[in-house]
UniProtKB/TrEMBL annotation:
<keyword id="KW-0378">Hydrolase</keyword>
<dbReference type="InterPro" id="IPR017853">
    <property type="entry name" value="GH"/>
</dbReference>
<dbReference type="Pfam" id="PF00933">
    <property type="entry name" value="Glyco_hydro_3"/>
</dbReference>
<feature type="domain" description="Glycoside hydrolase family 3 N-terminal">
    <location>
        <begin position="18"/>
        <end position="342"/>
    </location>
</feature>
<dbReference type="InterPro" id="IPR036962">
    <property type="entry name" value="Glyco_hydro_3_N_sf"/>
</dbReference>
<dbReference type="GO" id="GO:0009254">
    <property type="term" value="P:peptidoglycan turnover"/>
</dbReference>
<dbReference type="GO" id="GO:0004553">
    <property type="term" value="F:hydrolase activity, hydrolyzing O-glycosyl compounds"/>
</dbReference>
<protein>
    <submittedName>
        <fullName>Glycoside hydrolase family 3 protein</fullName>
    </submittedName>
</protein>
<keyword id="KW-0325">Glycoprotein</keyword>
<dbReference type="InterPro" id="IPR001764">
    <property type="entry name" value="Glyco_hydro_3_N"/>
</dbReference>
<dbReference type="InterPro" id="IPR050226">
    <property type="entry name" value="NagZ_Beta-hexosaminidase"/>
</dbReference>
<dbReference type="GO" id="GO:0005975">
    <property type="term" value="P:carbohydrate metabolic process"/>
</dbReference>
<keyword id="KW-0326">Glycosidase</keyword>
<dbReference type="InterPro" id="IPR016181">
    <property type="entry name" value="Acyl_CoA_acyltransferase"/>
</dbReference>
<dbReference type="InterPro" id="IPR036881">
    <property type="entry name" value="Glyco_hydro_3_C_sf"/>
</dbReference>
<comment type="similarity">
    <text>Belongs to the glycosyl hydrolase 3 family.</text>
</comment>
């Protein structure tokens, strides 16, 4: 296909307007040919049309509409037919819906759950035959996205899963099916929507934060394979890209993405179609006219504009202006034209376009396609877990028992992706469904769930009680029904994005755990949770003992569900991707070899990794690692068992990731003190592998009572770093997915006071100290250890005793300031004072990072019985600052302070926050391992 440059074009294409028309794809409002679309075809020579649910009412009307569009082009003298495209992804995303003639098939993920590539091919072929019968010649599919960020993922079940090889093999099977039926195929959404991060407002574009290297290993695999197998077209997304060496506002406008990555690296020579340039973020940031020129210059062959006639005119004007101003060369346009003509030659002709077979052919296909649809759905329903053997329901229910069905209030099933993208913004504030949602004959979720209730009731003599639930949670009427029913089915639809569903399900399941069947032996009330869209809702939550996934909630899917619940057919589906046979979630199939850190072998490589991690930090953000070296992590303390781990390249000796663990014998606390990964290799499960090894090691320590994320010693990461906006959210969810309860975190921070040479204590503070009723003194050396170490036992925080012991053994560089009761000399408060020569300073890299002579104050402990907590704390710190100033230092670090505390007193003394963290602790006995990935 690579010989476009050679073939001479027919002289009729010398007409620039005619040539430009072939490089545009447009949509329109309405179910008949409108004056606007007629003008675009006749006068602007528009060559491609996207139809969405808002244009289509039935198979018959679709055939009629498509034929009229083609006739309009034929009468206007178009040399080749229109390319007419449609999103018909199945599951919930179908633009053409017709209860009689168009069959419903499972979503892409539902098909993958059947485990059969052969079935995928058959379903794709059948889908394509149906829309082809109506005159459609371009399938806007398959979806080739790999779900690397599965939980907060708008794509959901539209893609086959999170394993690149599996997504690839199903994508190629779908593509072959479309081709077999004579349609052109289009891969989407290059370079992958599977790892989008939503970083800001509606106007901000979702962003791919993966590096090209990591995309190559993962997300680009399905695209690369589909190209090798002869994919006709590729849609490039309108998302942004941001990683080392790549900063792109909109992928489809970027030469780096289209020309360099897609054309040169992946050798794609088919038709490149841009994402819709009417997306608000895109039109708002750049403008449609300019955007169209940028898209063509980036290497797009066809520019998509979904529906606004004003924008469509603007795009045409933009292109003409681009040619007049010599911003676009005619040769560039002609090479795009050749590609478009090539695609059309393979998928359509005037003979075909002007005689669509329509209803006649659809009635012939109907019997075999109906059988295929039922077979596909029956093979896709997945019972992920059924711990107490609640299925089939006849196992646990008497004929007269009542069954309760609880379903969420959900928006109508989304029809086409393009239509949804445009309507989301338009309708987010109005309760009224968008026009296309009303006109498309798409079942609303409510109707489908009502029908589910009826079909559950048809099969049994006892009553089926059915009610819906909303963000208002468990109401009294729910509680009454739960009390009456003998078993409960809760339906969820994308609970990860509709958190109220998650909360409601957990609440009901808790009530049922406490309710027992009266009169009989004690047992929990049976609960079955059915996820009718994304399987990720409760896949990891083993407290939900019976969990079933259907991958979409069309009527056909729920008919198969009822058969499974009543035992009329056995659920044969398996979770796709890495959720697969083990039915456990792990993010990617790469198992990295984790090795113990070897100081001699790895120290230099660790210094390189630290430096690159600091260099890759976002400009303006401060890295906690800035002055750390490999030595900063090695305590070499007999009271602390340390074990550190690396993932490395044994050939080049380079480290890809590093993780530290410390076990403080005194408190039985196992601590992860740091985990970081080379920025070019994030999202490849390296961190996951290191973390699992760390936890496994700590679980084996004798006397381990608790785990903690964040280490007081060494004082580099006191917990999850939280000062970095979106990064905080990402890190928190990463650790939460590994099993840490980040909701129960404790805020800690390090602080700094500068310019000590001109500093004076706030007025009145010295006076209030006298009223604190304590005597203060400063002591050095081990002779004072007894009372000090006894005093700090009141505080069981890890690392505290070790800090004090280190200070007491280093009298030349450390001291202890004490607060004592005048009446009996007992200690009520202590704090450690140290300078840059002390051993302690080696573990507080922030000391060197200040860039001037600094002293440190560390680990204040105030007796719990003391009323004057804050006055005493200020007193100890104030005396410490005076000492540090006397030693000629110009800065003072407070290296471990309660972040929820009252900062007013400390900021009045001249301190400001340096870094903030969230320290997370949990009970070691209740830890459950997330399977290694």
């Amino acid at each position: 296909m690579g010989s476009h440059g050679a073939a001479p074009l027919d002289p009729m294409w010398d007409d620039t307007d005619r040539l430009l028309g072939q490089l545009l794809m447009m949509g329109f409002e309405g179910t008949t040919v409108t004056p606007q679309i007629r003008k675009l075809i006749r006068e602007d020579h528009l060559g491609s049309i996207l139809l969405t649910a808002k244009n289509l009412k039935s198979a018959e009307q679709t055939t009629q509409l498509v034929l009229e569009l083609q006739k309009c082009a034929y009468d206007a003298g178009h040399p080749v037919p229109l390319a007419i495209g449609l999103d018909q992804e199945n599951g919930g995303v179908n633009s053409l819906f017709d209860e009689i003639y168009i069959r419903q098939y499972p979503s892409a993920m539902g098909v993958a759950a059947t485990g059969s590539r052969e079935l995928a091919f058959e379903v794709a072929k059948a889908t394509a035959e149906e829309i082809s019968a109506c005159g459609i010649n371009l399938m806007m599919g398959p979806c080739l996205d790999v779900l690397t960020n599965a939980r907060n993922q708008p794509l959901g079940v539209r893609t086959t899963g999170d394993d690149p090889q599996e997504v690839s093999s199903y994508g190629v099977a779908f593509m072959r099916g479309y081709k077999e039926a004579g349609l052109a195929s289009m891969g989407k959404h290059f370079p992958s929507y599977g790892s989008l991060e939503f970083l800001g407002s509606a106007l901000d574009v979702p962003t791919i934060t993966e590096s090209l290297e990591s995309l190559s290993l993962n997300a680009l695999v399905p695209f690369r394979n589909a190209i090798k197998e002869g994919l006709d077209a590729m849609m490039v997304g309108g998302c942004a890209m941001s990683s080392a060496g790549l900063n792109v506002m909109h992928a489809c406008l970027s030469e780096q993405v289209v020309n360099d990555l897609l054309r040169n690296d992946l050798k794609f020579d088919g038709v490149v179609i841009s994402d819709c340039l009417e997306m608000e973020a895109l039109s708002h940031n750049i403008g449609v006219g300019g955007g169209t020129v940028m898209a063509i210059n980036a290497g797009c062959d066809v520019v998509l504009l979904c529906r606004s006639f004003v924008h469509q005119q603007e795009a045409i004007q933009g292109l003409k202006l681009g040619i007049e101003n010599a911003m676009i060369s005619t040769e560039r346009l002609r090479s795009s034209l050749r590609r478009v003509l090539d695609m059309k030659a393979r998928s359509t002709s005037w003979e075909k376009a002007l005689a669509p077979p329509g209803i006649g052919l659809l009635s012939q296909l109907q019997p075999s396609h109906t059988t295929l649809s039922t077979r596909a759905y029956n093979s896709s329903i997945t019972v992920v877990r059924d711990k107490n053997r609640l299925l089939p329901l006849s196992n646990i229910m008497e004929p007269e028992d009542e069954l309760l069905l609880l379903t969420p209030l959900v928006k109508p099933l989304v029809a086409s992706a393009a239509a949804r993208q445009l309507s989301e913004h338009a309708t987010s504030d109005s309760p009224e469904p968008a026009l296309w949602e009303r006109s498309a004959s798409v079942m609303s979720g409510e109707r489908v769930f009502r029908e589910l209730g009826r079909s559950l009731a048809r099969q049994r003599s006892g009553r089926v009680l059915h009610t819906s639930y909303t963000a208002n949670g468990v109401r009294p009427q729910h509680e009454n029904l739960i009390g009456r029913a003998s078993a409960i089915i809760i339906v969820t639809a994308d609970a990860n994005r509709n958190l109220y569903q998650h909360g409601f399900t957990k609440h009901v399941s808790m009530i049922c755990n406490m309710q027992y069947k009266s009169g009989a032996e004690k047992r929990e009330k049976p609960v079955i949770v059915v996820a009718v869209s994304s399987p990720y809702d409760f896949v990891m939550d083993h407290t939900i003992g019976t969990y079933v996934c259907t991958y979409d909630f069309t009527e056909t899917a729920l008919t198969s569900l009822v058969k499974v619940l009543y035992g009329e057919c056995t659920a044969a589906g398996a979770l796709p991707g890495t959720l697969s046979q083990s039915q456990k979630l792990s993010q990617s199939k790469q198992h990295w070899l984790v090795e113990a850190f070897n100081e001699e072998r790895d120290s230099n490589a660790l210094d390189v990794l630290i430096k690159s991690s600091v260099d890759d930090n976002t400009p303006g953000l401060h890295s906690e690692l800035a002055s750390a070296t490999s030595n900063s992590f090695l305590l070499r303390n007999p009271e602390v068992l340390e074990a550190h781990f690396v993932v490395r390249n044994s050939t080049t000796q380079a480290l890809y990731g590093f993780c530290t663990t410390y076990f403080f014998k005194a408190t039985g606390t196992g601590v992860i003190g740091a985990v970081f990964v080379d920025s070019g290799r994030r999202k490849l499960s390296i961190g996951h592998s290191l973390h699992n090894r760390a936890i496994r090691t700590m679980l084996q320590r004798d006397g381990v009572k608790r785990f903690q994320l964040g280490s007081r010693l060494p004082s580099i990461y006191l917990g999850i770093p939280t000062g970095h906006g979106g990064e905080r959210k990402r890190l928190r969810s990463w650790f939460a997915n590994l099993g840490w309860n980040t909701a129960l975190s404790r805020s800690v921070c390090s602080m700094v006071a500068r310019n000590l040479s001109t500093w004076t204590p706030p007025p009145g503070m010295a006076k209030s100290l006298q009223s604190a009723g304590a005597d203060f003194d400063l002591v050095y050396g081990w002779d004072h250890a007894g009372p000090v170490l006894d005093h700090i036992k009141t505080n069981n925080r890890q690392g505290l005793a070790e800090v004090y012991k280190m200070a007491l053994s280093d009298p030349s560089a450390c001291g202890i300031i004490r607060a004592k009761r005048p009446e009996d000399g007992s200690l009520v408060g202590t704090v450690v004072l140290y300078n840059m020569q002390s051993q302690l300073a080696d573990f507080v890299p922030g000391m060197k990072d200040i860039g001037e002579l600094a002293g440190g104050i560390s680990s204040p402990v105030i007796s719990p019985a003391v009323g004057e907590y804050s006055t005493l704390l200020q007193g100890l710190i104030l005396l410490g600052m005076r000492q540090i100033k006397q030693q000629g230092c110009n800065a003072c670090i407070l290296d471990y302070i309660d972040g929820d505390g009252n900062f007013d007193g400390l900021s009045a003394m001249g301190f400001s926050v340096l870094h903030t963290f969230e320290e997370v602790s949990c009970d070691a006995a209740t830890w459950t391992m997330v399977p290694p990935s």
